[in-house]
Structure formats: structure tokens, C-alpha cells
Amino acid sequence: MSLLEVRGLSKAFGGVRAVANVTFEVNAGELLALIGPNGAGKSTCFNMLNGQLTPDAGAIAFEGQSITGMKPRQVWRRGVGRTFQITATFSSMTVRENVQVALLSHHGRLKSLFTRACDQFVDEANALLERVGMRPQAERPCSVLAYGDLKRLELAVALANKPRLLLMDEPTAGMAPKERIALMALAADIVRTDNIGVLFTEHDMDVVFAHASRMIVLNRGELIAAGAPAAVRADPEVQRIYLGSRH
Amino acid sequence: MLQISKIHSYYGQAHILTDVSLEVNAGEVVVLLGRNGAGKSTTLKSIIGLVRPASGAVVFAGTRIERLAPYRIARMGLGYVPEERRIFTDLSVLENLEVGRQPPRARAPTWDFEKLGALFPNLREMPDRLGGRMSGGEQQMLTIARTLMGNPACILLDEPSEGVAPVIVDQMAEAIRGLKAAGVAILLSEQNLHFAMEVADRAYIIEKGGIRFEGTMQALSANAEVQAQYLAV
Amino acid sequence: MSPDAFAVQFLNGLASASTLFLIAVGLSLIFGVTRIVNFAHGSFYMLGIFVAYSLVTRIGDSPFGFWVSMLLAALVVAIVGLLVELVLLRRIYQAPELFQLLATFAVVLIVRDATLAIWGPEDLLGPRAPGLKGSVDILGRQFPTYDLVLICIGPAVLAALWFVLTRTRFGVLIRAATQDRDMVGALGVNQAWLFSGVFALGAFLAALGGALQLPREPANLGIDLVAIGEAFVVVVVGGMGSIPGAFLAAFIIAEIKAMCFAIGQTTLFGVSFSFSKLTLVVEFLVMAAVLIWRPWGLMGRPGAATRNAAEIEVPLKPADARTRKLGWVVLIALVLLPLVGTAFPYTIVLSIDILVAVLFATSLHFIMGPGGMHSFGHAAYFGLGAYGAGLLVKQLGWPMEGALAAAPVAAAVGALIFGWFCVRLSGVYLAMLTLAFAQIVWSIAFQWDELTGGSNGIVGLWPAEWLSEKWAYYYLTLTLTVAGVLLLWRVLLAPFGYALRAGRDSPLRADAIGIDVFHTQWMGFVLAGAVCGVAGGLFAFSKGSIAPEAISVGRSIDGLVMVLLGGIQTLSGPVVGAALFTWLQDLIAREFQYWRAALGFTILVLVLAFPLGVAGSIKRLFVKEVA
Known about the structure:
The complex is a heterotrimer of chains A (247), B (233) and C (627).
Chain A: E1 4-13, E2 16-26, E3 31-35, H1 42-49, E4 57-62, E5 65-66, H2 72-78, E6 80-83, H3 95-106, H4 122-131, H5 147-158, E7 165-168, H6 177-194, E8 197-201, H7 205-211, E9 214-219, E10 222-227, H8 229-234, H9 236-243
Parallel strand pairs in A: 3-8, 3-9, 6-7, 7-8
Antiparallel strand pairs in A: 1-2, 1-4, 4-5, 9-10
Helix pairs in contact in A: 3-4, 3-5
Chain B: E1 2-11, E2 14-24, E3 29-33, H1 40-48, E4 55-60, E5 63-64, H2 70-75, E6 78-81, H3 93-100, H4 113-119, H5 121-124, H6 136-148, E7 154-158, H7 166-182, E8 185-190, H8 193-199, E9 202-207, E10 210-216, H9 217-222, H10 224-231
Parallel strand pairs in B: 3-8, 3-9, 6-7, 7-8
Antiparallel strand pairs in B: 1-2, 1-4, 4-5, 9-10
Helix pairs in contact in B: 3-6
Chain C: H1 3-34, H2 41-59, H3 63-87, H4 97-119, E1 135-138, E2 141-144, H5 145-167, H6 169-179, H7 181-186, H8 191-213, H9 223-238, H10 243-263, E3 265-268, E4 271-274, H11 275-293, H12 321-341, H13 345-368, H14 379-396, H15 400-422, H16 427-447, H17 449-452, E5 458-459, H18 470-493, H19 495-505, H20 507-512, H21 517-543, E6 545-546, H22 553-566, H23 573-591, H24 595-609, H25 614-622
Antiparallel strand pairs in C: 1-2, 3-4, 5-6
């Protein structure tokens, strides 16, 4: 059984098909890259997987159980973490507090009215920050972080509930080449040690070819290719609509 | 044509640019390379007036412009293409271009829908398409075309290759070469060294808000140390 | 209802729709381009009537003179609008949304007193339009000819605006600026003049709407707030920034009102019910219904109203030793106050008012600041607390203590119901829906004579025997206020408070880490409502009465002013703001006939001098930048 099974996923906006009959799966222990031109339906696809959008048709199963049509917070409770293309963090809190909120939520403690929040799960939060290399910046307000650091913070937040599947929407966009490699190496390391699955979208083909175990290609909402990176790279259709001449 | 000398810029209390100087000559393509957060966008915004430099001088075509409002700078023939594209999604392609339209000026090529169509063939086929209904690549074309409608002598291009498909990156490179051929000077910001190599004549490297390297593209490509230190290649 | 009565009321509705459209469309245009919710728009409407009165009584004898007066009046007000834009708004386009609101509200106060000074307090009834004094026969009933002309003006203005917006460069630029004004500037368009032009155009349309009303209703000083209330409803129902939406909404609301008048007193299911009394709330009911069904208005689009990014906030921290020490000093001073206060009895009275205001403002800050929900109708929960307690004493004979204890319950029940609707929305739409609910509470208090005493309110609400001395009541108020404020602060530093801020900072991320944002905000809304109810109860027993006046839109606005004055980003902000505002208001109102204008100017000075609020600015002086 695959970790995530997606069958016949479809979504239209105002008559325009954004995602049409897309089928794929993600296995534990692999990094699956989802690539395609802007507007191909990658983000729509992602948003359906974590429950932000409800699919028009199709089924999504996580660990054998349907999560189709669930709300994001329910999907998260099942063990699916996510990072966003445009980083989404709590700008009025410190770096550690961002992780603490996720931990409080994971442990079901957010309804508490009188305990002091900033004293709870400090060690666990520090450990997560350590893992993504953000421990030295734990006390800083999240609003002053550099872009690459925000991305790493997001990863720490997404890991707070020990997810078995991680969805990463353009995890390295806006980073320098070395930072990109470092972040994806980190993701690959988490995949190995925790035996989780990662699905990510990416425009930087160096990153994709360096880290993806497999890849799938979307164009105009349809899945046009799937397979090992080398095979997909050689596919003439993929070269024509996406990769261009240089890859 | 464009000289920036010793500008300092702030966002609120944060000191973003320290002592940045650079220049762009007529008909030249200059690239400002650096990582995210290095100060590339702020440099371009400080030139066009969206961020007001606290000190230093910006001279365009012989006139000091660092205290002028963005619209005045744009009217002098200095165009700006933002990183986020900022297309007017509720307006059609033609209306988007209309917003950018300025009278023709001497010593700069004049653009209209026909000529832009030659540069960006996709746009020619969709004059009435709403901006919001276009693909990311098409929007990238439109945002450049819109700025060209102001008949600029020089344009500032903020990260044209960021977040678009590799095919579109190829088309962008093609368009930039076309603009250079037409006689438009270009200052572009980039993190993508390969892309910069394809289009630029000279490069500056910015890191933590200050210029760390300047030289020709040949000099940069020969200098592996600088590449590793500042561009994390 | 007979067909003829129906026809005449329908036409009446159309005539009102024209006026409503003229006010609302200007508001919508201004909001679209400048992103400023212009509270002063009703003032332009009011000025339109007054200026038209002065012109028509001088040169309006001929039809030509009359219509020239109409246009001239609108032009004069357009120039006033232009001045407001040039002198004030231009300085605050970068300021937070709520500060802009506060500034335009200050303009309302100033214009109100200026009008009072120029035209005096009496209602002024203008002459009827020359050449259009007669009426036409509609199914055997008389209908004024002038109103037929008015009916045509609305669609004509719509057509003209439509032409300008789609066929002219100015219109294309307006539409572009509505989306991204900075980009328009970077493309070489002088957006300053674009803004001024749009603002003047909006003022022109509002004033024209006002001037055209002159033959139909008297020029009256209170009409500015009525007009802005109605215009807000129309704009929100139609969709912020949508011009056809404003037209459609004006039509629907005016017709529903007209029909309520037409039906009048009727018997439903054996109960006599007055539909004409319903007219005070019917537009708010329509708005509530529309916003629940379509949260962005009939023809609005999602996201259009929430462009202004929130200010970046410094993380909240538990108070440090120095702040705690300062808190103790203030508290001890407050406890000792009655000792000196016996020499100045008024000090105690004013202090009670201040404490009530502090509790009110702190509860509003709780949902506005950390909750991110900008309530424009916090008076509703104040009113529910006050009236709830009052009714329990008067109708059920409860003792004062029990009634006061029930005040937060009454307010919480109201917040539970209203909040369920409001929390679904955000930004301006949320603000308007909270305002609508507050208006509904207000008009029930105002209209239900038998139960609430109508405009006189409930009188004879006095504290229990042991609290009858002013100092005793002061200590009760002090105790409850301090308890309420500390409770809210504590909750903000608890996990629940973090969840609340998480939902405000990034609903997307909050949802993606398992936070039920809706539920969290809803419960925050209820908690704030309950604490506000205590303030209402304390208020009623301190004054000995509660009347609709005390829970009107004015109180909601006062609350906003207090919170913003103190600074929305600091926990102590609402405390400082409430104290300062109440004290200032008391001082100015006692000393000065034109206290509204004085208050308005004070607000403007504070807004321009302390963009972070008073407490926020002081904090900035003492606390180094965290980075």
C-alpha cells in the first residue's frame, strides 16, 4: 500500500479545468517531484491534497484511509504536514513561539486559557529548530528573518506533529543555489531517518534532478509524464512544454 | 546613463543598503547578482523611488532623481518591472498597456502594440484577454511590455527568471537580447548565474546590502572564488 | 395593498434609490482607489444639502438657477473634499487602515460643528424645484414630478460613470489604481492627482445626492451619520469597489424600505406588527443576510477589501519587573484616590466613567488587536449588558448584584449569536456586519417602547444599599475593571491567546497546523463580549439609567478611538487610550461649545503625531528595537 494514493483528481474554476483526472501515489521513503509550467495546476493539486480546496471528482487516500474533502486541520491531524509557496508564518511571534504553537496544537493544549504559553514545550521546540538549523535564532521575532530562514522555520513547524507525509510547495524558491541544495538535503535526510514521504513542486531542475526519487509532470491540468528523473528528462513532450532546450 | 552613488536605504529601522554604487551605460545590459535578501530588489526600488534612499545620489540622464516621486522618474524614461509582475488582473492586455503608455521621447525607442507583438508573439494573440486569465509566463511578458509602453531609455528588471518554467526563462533571455538590440539599457537583478551569463555585459554582486564585486561577465565567470563566496554556487 | 399604493411606493423607492446610489457610489470609488473607508462621506452629503439651501434661496428662483445651484453646491463640496484630501489624507495613505478611519471620523466631527457654526442648529427646509412643483397622476394617485426626475438621475449617473471607467484613460487608470496604486505610480502616472481627482469626484457625487434632496427633506445636522450608515450598507451589500453593485444594492434596499412603509401596520399570525417601524433596521437585516450568503457583497470579489497588510508586530511578552512595578504604583494610586477624592466629588464620578471606558476599550482591543477582528459595533455588547441588567431589575425585580452578575451572560449570549455570523468575514466586511448587529440592538432598544422605554430608556437603576455611596461604587468598579483587564491579558499570553494571534497572522498556516480558526475567533469574540457586558452593567448602575443614546454607533466609535489612541499593538494601549479619551472628552465638553470640532482636531493631531498610538509611542521611546 502506498502512503498517499490519488485517483482521478479533478478541479475546475469557472468552467476552466485546473486539474483533470490526475492519478499518482507517493511512497514512504521517497521524494516525489511534481513539475510543470506556471498555471499547470500544481498549486491547485497541492491545495486539494491538504484540504484547502475540495476536489470536484476523484479520491485521495492517506495510509489507506480516505481524506477526500477533509479540512486542512483534519488532514494535518492525520499526519500530513505542509509548507507553502509563499511562506506562511506567525509574524507577531518569535521563531520558537511559531514552533510552540504547532506543538501546543499537536498535543491538544490550545484551548488552555490560563497557563503561560511561552513556557510550554520549550525543549521540544528547540530540538525541532536544532534539526533545521534555526536554534541560534530561536528568540528572534519571525518578522525579521531572512527568506531562506523562514523556509526552514516552516519546515520545523511542519515537522511538529511528526508527519508521515510532507507536502512542500516550491520549497527552495527564492534561495541561492547552495541554500537550495542544503534545504533539500535536509528534506532528504528527514525522509531517510523518519521513513516519511515527500511530495514537492520545484522549478529549479538542478534541485529536482539531484534529489527527486521519481517525478511527475503536469501540463494544463493533466498528468503527461511520470517516472524516474532520467526518463522524464528524456521525454520529448516534457522538453517541448517545460524543460526547453538547455536541459 | 544611470549612476547610483553611495546610497543608503532603510525599511523602517532596518538598514538594508549600505553605500551602494553602480552605473549603467547607454545600450548596456548590467546584472545585479545576489542571494535572496541581499538587497537587489531594494536597490531597484531605491532607484525608481518606491524606497527613498536616506543618503546618496541617483543620477539618470544627467538629472538627480533620488528625491523624486516614482511617477516623475518613470516619466523621465526609466522603466521598472517588478519581481511579482503586478499585472492589473481586472484589466485586459490592451488596458494594461494603456496604463503604461507615455509620450514618445528622444533617444529612446518608441513602442506600440504592433512592435511589442513582434517581441512577445503570445501577447499579439490576446489583446482582450484579462490579465488575471493569463498564464504566469504570459503575465511575465505583459509586465515587461507594459513598462516598454512608457518608451523608456533604460529599464530595471527585477528577477525576470524567478519562479517561471525553464522554457519561459529561455524566452525571457531572448526578449532581453531583443531589447538590447533595440537600444534599451537594462539593469536586471538575478540570482540565476546561468541566466545572467546569457544576457548581461557586466555584473555587480551585492551581499548584505553592499556591493562586493564589479566586473565584466568574463571576469566573473573566471572568478570561482567570488562565485562561491557570494552566490553560493 | 392596493395596486395604486404599491405603484406609488415603488416609485418612491426608486427616487430614494437614486439618492442612495449617488452617495454610495462615491464612497465605493474612493475606497476602491485610495483604500480609505471614508467616514466623512456622509458629511459631504450633509454639506451638499446645506450649501444647496444657501444657493437656492439666493439664485434658485428660475429652473435654470435651481439646477445651477445644485451643480454649484456639489462643486463647492467637491472642493472641500479636495482640500480634505490634500491637507489630511495625503499624509496618511501609508498609515494603518484604522488610523485612516479615525482621521476621517475626526473630519466628521469638525464638519458637523462647522455646519452648526455657519447654518445654526435649526432644520432648514428648501423651496421646491421651480417648474417641477406639480405632480403627475399614477393610477389615480399623485406623484411629485420632481421625484420622477430624481428617478432618472441615478441611472444617468451610472451610465456616465460606466462610460468614464471603461472608455477613457482616466477610467482605466482608476481601475488600475484600484488594484495596485504603487505600480500605477511606477508606470509614470501621478497617482497623487489621481487620488485627489477620485476623492473630489466622490465628494461631488455625495453632495449632488444631498443637494437633490433639498426639495424633499429639510437640511438637518444629524443627517451625516444617517447617510454614512446607509451608504456603508449599500456599498457592502453591493460589494466594495463595485459600481454596478452599488446601484443594485441601492435599488434593493430602497425598495424594501419603501415596501415596509407601504405595508405599514399589519397583522401577522394574529400579532399586530408595524412594518414601518422595521425601516430603521431593515437595511441592516438585508446586509446581514447578504453577507452571510455572499461574504463579499452581491457583485464584489473576494480579497478586494483585504489588501492592507497588517502592521508587523513585536512579539507579546509577559510584563517585566519594571512594568509590573509601574502597574502596582498605578493600582495603589487608584485605591487611594477616594481619600483625596472626597474634596473633589467630581473626581470620583469621572474616575468611574474612566474605569468603565477602560474595561470597554480593553475588551474591544482583545478582538481587534490580537484577534484581528475590527469590530465597529462593540456598543452592542455594552448595550446588552446594560439593558440586560436593567431589565432584570425593572421587569423581574432582581436585586442589583444579581442583575450585574447577569450582565456578562446577556452580552455573551449576544456575542455568541452575532459572532457566529461576523467571524466568517474579515476586514471591512466584518467591521460592517458588527456595525449592523449593533444597529439592530440599538433600534430594538429605541423602538420597543413597552419593554425598553424607547428613547427615554430604563430609569431608576440604582446600586444596592451598600454601594450607594459613590466611593463604594468606585471600589466595585475598580475591582471588576482590574479583574477584567487582567483576565484578558492573561488569556492573551495563554495558548488560547496564541491560537487567536496565529489565526490573525496567518489563517492559512493556523489551519494547516490543526487550529480551528473559526472556533477560536468565535470564542474570543464571546469572551470579549462578556467582559464588555460587565462594563455595560457597571455603566447603567453608575448613571442610574440606560438609554439608546448610550449604546449608539457613537459609543462603538469612541471605543475604536480609545484603542487606536492608546495603540493597538500594546496591551496597555487601550487602558491609556480610554483614560486619555474619557478625560479629554469630559474636559472639552464642559469648557467649549464646539467640543466636537475640538475633539476632532485633537484626534487629528494625535493621529499625525503618534502613528503608533500614545502607549505604543511611549514604548518605542523606552524599548530598543528587537532585531
